[in-house]
Every structure is written in structure tokens, then in C-alpha cells.
Amino acid sequence: MLIKTARDIKNSEITPENIFRDRRRILAAGLAAGLLPGIGLDTEAALPDGISLNKTKPWPNSIDEEYSDFDDVTGYNNYYEFGTGKTDPARYAHTLVTDPWSIKVEGEAENTGTFTLEDILRPHSFEQRVYRLRCVEAWSAVVPWVGFPLADLLKRFSPTSKAKYVQFFTLYEPNQMPGLRYPVLEWPYREGLTIAEAMNPLSLMAIGLYGQALPNQNGAPLRLVVPWKYGFKSIKSIVRIRFQESQPQTSWNMAISQEYGFYSNVNPRVDHPRWSQASERRIGGSLFSARTPTLMFNGYEAEVAHLYRDLDLAKNY
Amino acid sequence: MASVLIAPLKIITCLACLTPFVWLLLRAFAIGPLDLGANPVEEVLHTLGKSGLNILLITLTITPLRRFTGLHWLVALRRMLGLFSFAYLSLHFLTYITLDWGFAWNSLIVDIIARPYITVGFTGLALMFPLAITSTNRIQRRLGRKWVKLHRLIYVIAPLGVLHFYWQGIRDPFEPLVYAGIVTLLLGLRILYWAGKQRMIRKS
Q: What is the chain B residue with the closest CA to A186?
């Protein structure tokens, strides 16, 4: 059928009004910032010149679930560099400076060096992907990310045959990130993937959500999204990418290795030592919303299960 | 003077103890700009648990405060504080079994047994139950010295509560450690007082 009736339009295709208004506000603010140099939006990550989200295409494999509320996704999350409370990132991340931004690429690859954010983004076209997000703390969300496949980026650096793993680092700027004063985790925050995981088509380099640039608290200007793993694997505000032969260190594993492994795949059958991972709570629900069963690999079993065929997932949590 | 103050002080204490609950209700019913945030069940659980623990620690400060200041009538507030703490922690547990787990008894029982932090919290609350039901004047009189001994269970309950708080946390131990410090101080003062009394007895 060519003509879409109202009933054919998925809830998730309709831009919620608050976001529509937000876009207008950001557009207006952007215009103002252009006309009056020096006055910009410090809470909104500005994309580099020439990079626009206007041509973002929908990704055909997005899940058909209602998005979480924009305010919940941007107001309730973890970003320990800005505090360990769930509302701390939204409250304190305005101090993060994302312009200028550069990314250092090093290790087992032919094209290493330091690249500006514009260099990194320019060749890519962006798509909107609606993914489930499952935090290791047993809450979850549905987020429309904007980004491009991580594989497309990594291939540009021509990793060598020795590149078995990729490690990522978050910005370390104590002046901008008050949480770095506390030795809660090993700073700078670091995460890693096997090269096969990184090259999996689901692995996303995200630069936006809900049709706009990433807000600081969600990891501006560039973050990873690995939807079949617990949220802490999806490292924020990336400044360094390293290809290496050995399994990289990851901050949570360094902190408590018996609770957080290198893989950290979403798995309802392998509990966290202190709580059950069999179910989760969708954020934005009411007091009476029931828990939702957690899906194997967060519902992405068909896409990623083959990566772990020979692995004991209870041991390699 | 003191007796004149007791009645209004009791009312003030009662209102103060009710405040977190009323605040929670206002947030739950989204009065004005208030709400429970993105994860309301978790917010209710945490607010009730922490209010109960706070009031428990305040209950434990009554005796040392009385000994230091000589304001012996403070003891008149202790029972109310203890019962409020029990009420908050019972609501905390009820929230956990109803709103959080929706009466999924099988998962619940597994959770209580298999998760040490829940076992610890549950044990603490269970130990509060005999204290709550023996809190009337009549029972207190009838039990006499036994009542005093029974109510020393609070010295076990408070550390269990703090351990539960510490253990459920993800990574940031700062707040639970502050609570642990307060409990250590409050129990330590009692040990010092007791040791002092022993010395006095031996001297005489």
C-alpha cells in the first residue's frame, strides 16, 4: 500500500512535540549564536562546521518500540565523570567543552595520528537507529540514536592483522569533569571490544539522539553504542582509539573484576553477583509499571550470538 | 520546664518524621512541578529506605545525647522515633515486594536468600519486629530488665541496615561510609560509657 493511513504510522515515527519544539529552540539558538559570535549554547554539543544531521536517514532495522521520553534519556543516566548520581550528568555536564575536539588513533593500524572531529565525521552519512539500552543496574530505555557504523570508521585507519582488540578512552579533564576528583573508577574511563565485536554492523558511533546533537551528559560529541552489551561498554566522549593485540583494560573490570567482565553482554541467565539480571525496569514508567523480562543479548541474539559460539558466557561475563 | 516542652516536642518530632512520607506522596501524585523522576519505583524504594535508616540513627543518638546533656526527658521521644523508623523500613520492604517484584513470590524468595545485601536488610527488618510489638508501656513494664536486653537488638539492626545500604550501591561508597562512621560513633560512645561504669563499679 502506497498511501499511509494514520494507523500505519508508528508511534515512533511521530516527532514528539517537546522534541519538535526543542529543535526549533536549538535552531533559533544556533542562528543567534551565528549572528552574535561568542554567545553559544554551552549545554549543547555543537557539531563541527559542515556537519549536519539534516540528511539523517532512518535505519531499516530499528526496533519497533516506543521511544523513551527525551527528558528521561537526557536526565537519568550514568556518566561518573560528572558524579555518581543519576541526575548528576544532566546537572553538571554543561562544563564539558566539546569544541575543539580531536581524537588520537594509535596502535596496530596503518593510519594512526590525531584527527579533528570534523576529519572523523566528514566522510560518513548518518542514520537514525532505534536501539534498546540495558544498564547493568537493571534499568533500560529505548533510544533513537544518530550515528554511523563503527566499522566504517575503524576501516579508515587500516588496522593491521595484529589488531585483535580496540580500546577507547574518554576525555580526562579534571577542570571540566568534577567527578574525576574521586577515585571511584580508574581514570581516564576506558573500554574495549574485540575487533569482531567492533566490526559488527550493530556497533554504532553515535553523534546524536532524537534528531539532535548529543547533549553533553549523553557523551558529546562522539560516543560508542553497543546495544547488546550493558550500557557501561558504550563509552562516552571518546578522545582516543587504540588497536592492540592483547585484551585491553576496561575501567569497570579494573575496579571490580568479579562483578564486571570484559564482555559484559546482556544476559538474563547470568546474574550480577549482587542482583538478578533476569528482568529490567524501563525508565519513564509509572509506580505501577511491571518489570520487563531481559532478552538474551538485549534482543540482538540473531545479530551477535555467532560472536560467542565457543565462549562459556557464565565464565566470560 | 521539661515536662511543658515534651508535648510540643513530640508533635514537632512527629511532624518531622512524617515529612519524608508526605513529600513522597506529593511527588507520587505529581503535585505542582514535583515528580518521582525517570525511575519512580527505585525512587520510592530509596527514599523510604534512607528515611528509615536516618530515623534509626537519630533514635540511637537519644541515649548518648541524654547522657551528655542531662536532658533526660529526651527519652520520651525515643519510642516514637523507633516506631517511625520501623514504619518507613516496613514500607520500604512492602514496596520491594509489591511495586518492584509484583508479588512474584518465587523470584522474591530466591532474591532474599541468594542476594546477601537483601538477606542482610531483611534480617535487620525482621529483628525490628519484636522491638516494635514490645513498645507499649504495659509490655515494657511487664518485661522489665528483659525489655532492656531485648531492645539491645538495635545495636545489631543498625549495622545491618548500614551494611545493606553499602552493599546495594553500585560503586560510590561515600554516603554509606558516612553512615557507617555515624553508627560506629554511636555504638562506640555506648562502649565507652559502659567501660567507664565498669571501672566505677570496680572502684567502689
A: B171
Task: Count structural domains, chain A.
Answer: 1
pLDDT at residue A24 tops 80: no
- H-type alpha helices, A115-232: 117-121, 150-156, 195-199
Q: What ipTM was assigned to the predicted interfaces of this complex?
A: 0.88
- Asked if B58 and B84 touch (Cβ cutoff 8 Å), the reply is no
- In chain A, residues with a C-beta closer than 8 Å to the C-beta of B41 are 281, 285, 287, 289
Distance from CA of A194 to the nearest CA of B (A): 26
d(CA B200, CA B145): 21
Q: What is the pLDDT of residue A96?
A: 97
Spatial separation of the C-alpha atoms in residues B92 and B121, rounded to whole Å: 10
Identity of the residue in B40, B167, B171 whose CB atom sits nearest the CB atom of A184: B171
CA atoms within 13 A on the CB side of A146: 23
CATH number at residue A163: 3.90.420.10
- State the average pLDDT over residues B45-55: 97
Domain count of chain B? Answer: 1
Q: Which long-range contacts (CB under 8 A, 24 or more apart) does A15-24 make?
A: A15/A211, A16/A67, A16/A70, A18/A70, A18/A71, A19/A70, A19/A210, A19/A211, A19/A212, A22/A70, A22/A210, A22/A212, A23/A211, A23/A212
pTM: predicted TM-score of the whole model, two decimal places: 0.87
What range defines the domain where residue A181 resides?
17-308
Residue B150 belongs to domain spanning:
3-203
